[in-house]
Every structure is written in C-alpha cells, then in structure tokens.
C-alpha cells in the first residue's frame, strides 16, 4: 500500500455550496426578525395599534419560517457529481 492510500483525506461535513446556502438562510431569518421590530409606544399609558400591523403579525413570521426551511434545504442538499469533482481538485 502506498502512503496516499493509507492517508485519510480531511473532508468537511458539508460542501462549499451548502455553507453558502446556509449563510443566505441566516440572512433571511435575520431579515424576518428585523421586520418584527418596532411598534413600541413612547408613552406606556397609550396603546399603539402599530403592534398589530400586517408586517409584524403576518409577513415577518412567514419570512422567518421560510428562512428556517431554506436552512434545512441547505443542509440536506447533496452536491452533483460535477460539483464533487470540482471540489476535489
């Protein structure tokens, strides 16, 4: 056996494309949480209806959920054979 055959090659758990997709998913989730911010009243005795806006109640949770689902997709995605050959070089 040659030395190359006995050496174990260090392999990452995920490919480079998976990490890029995970970074995109992280940005989507953070964007969703940023959409939820705001709506506070300066005076605690006055109720601000802006808390119940479409952006905070509907849009932001959908964006966050999409970000988490996209993150799951990014982890589960397997690279194609061409991408594997390119990464081995």
UniProtKB/TrEMBL annotation:
Keyword entries, A-Z: Membrane, Transmembrane, Transmembrane helix
Domain of life the protein comes from: Bacteria
Keyword Transmembrane on entry: yes
Annotated TM spans: 21-39, 59-76
A Pfam cross-reference name: DUF3098
Protein name: DUF3098 domain-containing protein
């Amino acid at each position: 056996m040659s030395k190359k055959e006995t050496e174990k090659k260090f392999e990452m758990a995920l490919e480079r494309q998976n990490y890029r997709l995970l970074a995109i998913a992280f940005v989507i989730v953070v964007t969703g949480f940023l959409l939820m911010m705001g709506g506070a009243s300066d005076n605690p005795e006055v109720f601000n209806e802006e808390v119940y806006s479409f952006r905070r109640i509907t849009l932001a949770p959908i964006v966050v959920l999409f970000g988490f689902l996209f993150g799951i997709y990014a982890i589960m995605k397997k690279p194609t054979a061409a991408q594997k050959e390119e990464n081995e070089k």
